[in-house]
DNA sequence: CGTAATTTTGACGCGCGTCAAAGCTTGTGG
DNA sequence: CCACAAGCTTTGACGCGCGTCAAAATTACG
C-alpha cells in the first residue's frame, strides 16, 4: 500500500498533471505497471511560445500530455488559412487524431511557454495490452474526445456568436476548475483572434462580444485575464436558442 | 490458409460490411481470434425508419456497425431542438462517443429500414487485450472518428453554405465509393431537412442550394436520388475560400 | 385517396463578416 | 530604460449571406 503511494509520486513527478495517469490510476494498477508506465514517459525541454510541438504531416510517434502552458492545434487550408481545432490545457492530451493516419493531421503550437510529456505510442499500445485498466483508460479518453468534438460541432453549427462565446468561456471555466484552479477567475492562454478563429468568428466580432458581455455585467476582462461575474447568466446564454422561443415548424421525429 | 478463408466468410455473414473487421482482418488474426470475434457479435432485428437504436442517456453496453440502411445520431438541446451530429452508412460504426460516459450522449435513429450488428463493448474490450491487432484497430477507428469530427468542425466553422454542401456531397460520394457503390450516382438516405440540420443550415437554404447546384450543372437531383455531374467543380467548391484566391493544386489531404 | 410531412419559392431583415484605420500591447535592440 | 516595430484589439461604417416568415406545391405514407 505504502509502496504504491511512493510510486504514485514518482509518476506525478514525471508527468505531473497528466490526465492519462490520473484517469488510469484509480482503476487498478500494480506496482510493476506503474513502473512500466513511468519508464516510457519522456520528458522534453519546454516549448517557447509559438514553437511547434509537431507539424501537420509529421510522422506520428507519440501522443502528448500538457503539463504546463497551453497548446493550440490547427489545420491549414490549401490557401494557408488557419483553422484552430482545439486548445489543450494542462492535464489534457493531444495527438490522438493521428493514430489512424500514422501522420499528424494538424499542427500543434505552443501558446505560451509550455512543457509537455511525450508518450511513445507503440510502447503505450503494448503496455495497454498488458494492463487492462490502461487499455480502458485509453479508449475512454478517446471516446471523450469524440464526444467533445461533436459537442463543439453542435455549438458552432447552431449557435449565435454570443452563445458560442458563452459556451467557450464555460468550457474553460470548467477545465480550469477541474485542475484545481479558480473557475471564475482565470487567464485565457490564447489571443482573442485565436479564440475567434476557433469559434468560427471574425476577431472584430469577438472584440465586440467581450465588450457587450462586460456591459451586461457577465464578466470583467482585462487583456487575457477574465473574471466571470454572472455564471448563471452565462449558462443561460449557453443554453439559449437563436431567436424565437416557439418551435419553428412542427417537425418531430418520434415515430417508433 | 484455406481454413482462414472459411472463417472469414463466417464473419462476413455475421457482420457483412463491418468496418471493424474489415480494418482488423488485414492485420493479423489467428483462426481462434476470428472465432472469438464471431461469437461476440450479435445480430438484431432490423430497425424500421424512425426507430431508435438507442436514446441519449441510455446505458452504454455495445457499439454498433451498420450493415444496411442508415442511421443518424442527434443531440437534443434542453429546448428540444435537434442537432444531427452524424450520419452512419453501411460499414460504419457508431456508439464510440459513449465509452467515456458509460451512457450514450446522443440518440441514434434509423433513417430507413436498417440492420445493424451489435458488439458488446465489454467483450470487445477483453478480446482487444488478447488480440493486438484488434486493439490497434479499435484505436485507429476512434482516432479516425476524432479526425473526421475535427474536419467537420472546420467545415462548419469556416465555410459558406455552398462549400458545406459540396463537402458533404463529396463525403457521401467517397463513402459510397468505398463500399463498392457508385460514387457519382447514389441515393441520399436522409431528408434535405436533416442534411441542412447537420450542416448548420436552414432547410430553405438547402433547397435553394440544390437548385443552384443543378442550374450550374454540378449535379442532377430527383428527390433523394443524386447524380454528381461535375466532380471537379464540386472539389473546387469544397476547397474554395470565401475570399479571392484561385490557388490550384492537385494534392489532397490524406484522409484516414 | 386523404392527411401530414417535406420541399420549394418569394419577400424581407438582421447578424456578422469585411474593410479601414486608430489605439494598445508585447517583444527587441540600442 | 526608452524607442520602434509588429502584432494584437478596438471602433465605426457598410453590405451580403443566410435565417426567418408565410404559404403554396409536392411527396410520402397509412
Write down the CATH class of the largest domain in chain A: Mainly Beta
Number of helices of chain A: 9
Across the major sheet of chain A, the strand order is 1-8-3-6
Instruction: Return the string of H and E elements of chain A.
Output: HHHEEEEEEEEHHHEHHEEH
- For the record, the count of structural domains of chain A works out to 2
Helix content of chain A: 40-55%
Oligomer: homodimer
Beta fraction of chain A: 15-25%
Tell me, rounded to a whole number, the average pLDDT of chain A. 83
For this structure, the CATH topology of the largest domain in chain A is Jelly Rolls
- Count of extended strands of chain A: 11
The CATH homologous superfamily of the largest domain in chain A is called Jelly Rolls
**Which segments of chain A are poorly predicted (pLDDT under 50) over 5 or more consecutive residues?**
1-17, 242-256
The second-level CATH architecture of the largest domain in chain A is Sandwich
Q: Could you give a short account of the major beta sheet of chain A?
A: 4 strands, antiparallel
What is the 3D form of chain A? globular
**Distance separating the two termini of chain A:** 53 Å
Cα-based radius of gyration of chain A, to the nearest Å = 20 Å
Structural class of chain A: alpha+beta
Q: Give the largest chain-chain interface (CB within 8 Å).
A: A-B, 55 and 64 residues
Amino acid at each position: 500500500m505504502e509502496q504504491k503511494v511512493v510510486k504514485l509520486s514518482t509518476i506525478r513527478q514525471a508527468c505531473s498533471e497528466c490526465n492519462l495517469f490520473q484517469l488510469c490510476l484509480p482503476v487498478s494498477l500494480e506496482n510493476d505497471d506503474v513502473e512500466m508506465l513511468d519508464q516510457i514517459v519522456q520528458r522534453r525541454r519546454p516549448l517557447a511560445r509559438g514553437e511547434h510541438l509537431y507539424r501537420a504531416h509529421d510522422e506520428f510517434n507519440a501522443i502528448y500530455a500538457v503539463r504546463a502552458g497551453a497548446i493550440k492545434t490547427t489545420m491549414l487550408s490549401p490557401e494557408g488559412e488557419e483553422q484552430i481545432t482545439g486548445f489543450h490545457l494542462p492535464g489534457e492530451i493531444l495527438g490522438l487524431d493521428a493514430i489512424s493516419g500514422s501522420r499528424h493531421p494538424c499542427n500543434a503550437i505552443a501558446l505560451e511557454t509550455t512543457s509537455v510529456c511525450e508518450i511513445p505510442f507503440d510502447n503505450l499500445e503494448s503496455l495497454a495490452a498488458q494492463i487492462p485498466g490502461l487499455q480502458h483508460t485509453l479508449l475512454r479518453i478517446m471516446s471523450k474526445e469524440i464526444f467533445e468534438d461533436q459537442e463543439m460541432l453542435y455549438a458552432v453549427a447552431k449557435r449565435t456568436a454570443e452563445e458560442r462565446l458563452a459556451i467557450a468561456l464555460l468550457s474553460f471555466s470548467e477545465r480550469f476548475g477541474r485542475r484545481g484552479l479558480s473557475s471564475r477567475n482565470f487567464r485565457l492562454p490564447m489571443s482573442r483572434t485565436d479564440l475567434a478563429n476557433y469559434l468560427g468568428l471574425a476577431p472584430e466580432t469577438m472584440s465586440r462580444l467581450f465588450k457587450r458581455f462586460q456591459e451586461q455585467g457577465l464578466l470583467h476582462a482585462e487583456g487575457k485575464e477574465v473574471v466571470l461575474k454572472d455564471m448563471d447568466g452565462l449558462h443561460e446564454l449557453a443554453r439559449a436558442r437563436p431567436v424565437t422561443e416557439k418551435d419553428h415548424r412542427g417537425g418531430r421525429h418520434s415515430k417508433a
